[in-house]
Amino acid sequence: MIDDYEDGNALAGPLSEIFTFDVTTADTRCAGCGRTGPVADLRVYTHAPGLVARCPGCEGVVLRMVRTPTAAWLDLRGSVALRIPLG
User: Fold this and answer.
1) How far is the C-alpha of 28 from the C-alpha of 16, rounded, in Å?
2) Contact (CB, 8 A) for 10 and 67
3) Tell me, what's the pLDDT at 1?
4) CA distance 41 to 54
5) Which domain of life is it from (predicted)?
6) Is there a contact between 72 and 64 (Cβ–Cβ < 8 Å)?
7) Residue 75 needs a FRET pair 20 to 30 A away by CA distance; which of 54, 64, 68, 87 works?
8) 70 Cβ contact partners less than 8 Å away, ≥ 6 residues apart
9) Residue 18 phi, psi dihedral angles, 5° rounding
10) Dihedral (C-alpha) 34, 6, 40, 79: value to the nearest 10 degrees?
């Protein structure tokens, strides 16, 4: 695995087009190892068609995002849950 990644804060801008809150403050649970932590702690790989966010514990893919000129595709199948803080 190449260690050329950014932290989950790299998702803040792209995901702000979809969500009205800062997703990097939400907690996610990895479907692979069960690790729970803020989206900001994910390892984001930007050298692909889109963004790939991996768990820092097991390196499993937690989130994928690809943007086209007319739509955004968000794949969260590597995440069991997303806990969103309210107010």
Assistant:
1) 17
2) no
3) 54
4) 9
5) Bacteria
6) no
7) 87
8) none
9) -105, -45
10) -30
Burial 47-85 (b: 16+ CB within 10 A, else e): eeebbbbbbbeeeebbbbbeeeeeeeebeeebbeeeeee
Contact yes or no for 79/65 (Cβ under 8 A): no
DSSP lists the bridge partners of residue 30 as 79
* Helix/strand/coil for 52: strand
**Rounded CA separation 70/62 (Å):** 24
Vertex 19 angle, CA 41 and 61, to 5°: 40
The total number of residues written for the chain in this structure: 87
The answer to whether 54 and 60 have CB atoms below 8 angstroms apart is: yes
Token pair belonging to 85? 């803080």
pTM of the model: 0.82
